[in-house]
Amino acid sequence: MGVLDAFDTGILIAYLMLIFAMGFYFARGNHSTEQYFLGGRKFKGWVIGLSLTGTSISSITFLAYPGDAFKTNWLRFLPNLMLPLAVIVAAFWFLPRLRRGGFTAYEYLETRFGASIRAYGAVVFILAQLTRISMILYLLSLVIQTMTGLDAQLSVVTAGIFVAAYTILGGIKAVVWTDLVQTFVLLLGGILCLVTILDLLPGGWNQLLENAWHSGKISLSDTPGLAADWGFSLNHKTATMMLLVGLTSWLTEYSSNQNTVQRFCATKTAAEARKAMFICAAVSLPTWAFFMFLGTALYVFFNIFPDTTASAILNGDRKAEEILPFFITHYLPPGLVGLVIAAAIAAAMSSLDSSMNAIAMVTTSDIYRRFIAPGRADRDYLSVARGVTAATGVLMVAGALYLIDAETTTLQDTATILTALLAGGLLTIYLIGFFSSRCDALHILLGISSTIAYTAWTLTTGDGRFSYPFDLYYTGLIGNIVMFVIAWGSSFVIKPSRRHKTSAA
């Protein structure tokens, strides 16, 4: 049975109608693939910056970050601190090279290394994004299920169809402008939750901060209450290693993630693209910190006002991501529930629509147009793009349905591990391409083969009978090292061909 009253239901319906109307409105100008994927390359930097923020914060921010901070502490926030450094590197070294291409980040790989490397980059991106959007849709279904009383499966299907519909219609313009609206709605929803907690706590801010500090909930250690470990280690999480994981992750994001590169190419100029990157970093970092703090505040709240559901989450009997929806439904005053549910939905849709459009762009441009059906009329590729978006929606729903019964510690934890596993050494490939003329396609293919073998070993031995010599958080970092050692090292044994011995600098 749902918990929404008539007023809250009206707010939620009005919000969803607004989002769908925007998708329908922007469908009018999509008569070419460039319009559908890049909006005619006319966006200003501030619009793209806030759109990038909406994409990066997602449901993992709105639900998984509070869940993680509620159940553990702030250790997993540390990778985010490396975003500003990654943005500076990307803005002045990556951006000029990536904007020279056409539609996607992987066209650069063909220019530098050949068509086979382009295909690899495209396939790795598609697999990683399908995994990510399945997680986000699953989180969205938790909210819908809690708020409306729909069962989990129906919640997943309903949400998936809605997001797919307006993304198919509106293309990148709908994605960018709805992301901008959804960013503000998400922030408003989080603020309303924190204000409610502070109002209900007898001691307000002071009680919240004192309780959190004495409970070790703002610790940077993997074990609450212990001091942060700033050493180097591969077999357990340390603060230093988490920063290195973050740097690797964000450099990968700003070099090879089509969600991000697509926005670079959609701006009017490179200067506007840089402005977008700096705005995204300036807004995203405090937003992530805020939602981690919201999880800490929820811990303090349920420490003062114990509840069996909160205790079950802390004990691992229920999923950590359920804590914020539970608080919304049981403790927010009437009239605010609809706004906060809209915020939770906004968090999911701002990432789902971006990834679906990017997957369609990569599949159409890097796979279909390049390898399967080159030389066709643009309207044919536009039809394929819409069809791929629809197919992506189906796969996303299937993945979210699988996650309903999956066993995870926290979804933020799972997301970090899967992102590392699916990174595929892409960062190293781009870094070699950007800053060296040494390697060619053969060396990169040798590195890719070794990285795939390493990743396959990681996946197939994770059955509980094998003790990894490293923490799974470091999988992506190690994968990039494997890629570099094999690709770069083989170039000293196998002489690079003259055809590829050119630098992309």
Structure commentary:
This protein has 505 residues and is mainly α. It has 2 domains: 6-20 and 43-422, Sodium/glucose cotransporter; 424-505, no CATH class. Helix content is 74%, strand content 0%. It is built from 19 helices and no strands. Helix 1 (6-26) packs parallel to helix 14 (337-372), helix 3 packs across helix 14 (337-372) and helix 18 packs antiparallel against helix 19 (475-493). The longest helix is centred in the middle third of the chain and has 49 residues, at 152-200. The protein starts with 5 loop residues before the first helix and ends in a 12-residue tail after the last helix.
Which helices and strands appear, and what pairs or packs with what?
Layout: H1 6-26, H2 33-38, H3 45-71, H4 83-98, H5 106-113, H6 115-148, H7 152-200, H8 204-214, H9 239-256, H10 258-266, H11 270-304, H12 308-314, H13 323-331, H14 337-372, H15 378-404, H16 411-421, H17 426-435, H18 441-460, H19 475-493
